[in-house]
């Protein structure tokens, strides 16, 4: 089974794909140019309802748009760092396409332990 790779892109990638200038793309998204530029530079300062409107207009998951990607909480970030550090020490567990462990463990360089 082939697992597709999901790539998060910037709003600028979506704009270029549509062959639109900033004004045209902002209008397409239902926002003004200043808001569009704010989305590019500091998306967390743009209100959630407006970010949802942009997401709905693009008809994509927020995980596919860099500026709309939900920022993880400090707790989730800490969990991820702890999991990474543990795997670096104890080894990385290989899983199959269904995310079931295969029984193989690798070190941080990809060598099987």
Number of strands: 2
Quickly give the structural class.
Answer: mainly alpha
* SSE arrangement, N to C: HHHHHEE
Helix content: 40-55%
The oligomeric state is: single chain
Number of helices: 5
| Approximate strand percentage | 5-15%
Strand order within the widest beta sheet: 1-2
Low-confidence stretches: none
Broad shape: elongated
N-to-C span: 26 Å
Q: Kindly provide the radius of gyration, computed on alpha-carbon positions and rounded to a whole number of angstroms.
A: 19 Å
Mean pLDDT over the full residue set: 91
Major sheet summary line: 2 strands, antiparallel
How do you describe this structure in short?
This protein has 113 residues and is mainly alpha-helical. It has helices at residues 11-17, 22-29, 33-41, 48-58, 74-90, and strands at residues 92-95, 101-106.
Key terms for this structure?
single chain, two-stranded antiparallel sheet, 2 strands, mainly alpha, 113 residues, 46% helix
What does this molecule look like?
By secondary structure, the chain is mainly alpha-helical. Helices cover 46% and strands 9% of the residues. The chain has a two-stranded antiparallel sheet. The longest helix has 17 residues, at 74-90.
List strands and helices in order, with pairings.
Blueprint: H1 11-17, H2 22-29, H3 33-41, H4 48-58, H5 74-90, E1 92-95, E2 101-106
Antiparallel strand pairs: 1-2
């Amino acid at each position: 089974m082939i697992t597709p790779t999901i790539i998060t892109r910037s709003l600028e990638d979506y704009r270029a794909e549509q062959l639109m200038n900033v004004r045209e793309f902002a209008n397409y998204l239902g926002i003004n140019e200043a808001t569009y530029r704010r989305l590019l530079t500091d998306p967390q300062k743009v209100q959630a309802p407006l970010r949802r409107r942009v997401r709905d207009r693009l008809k994509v998951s927020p995980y596919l748009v860099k500026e709309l990607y939900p920022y993880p909480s400090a707790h989730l970030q800490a969990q991820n760092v702890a999991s990474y550090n543990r795997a670096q020490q104890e080894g990385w567990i290989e899983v199959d396409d269904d995310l079931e462990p295969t029984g193989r463990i690798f070190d941080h360089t990809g060598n099987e332990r």
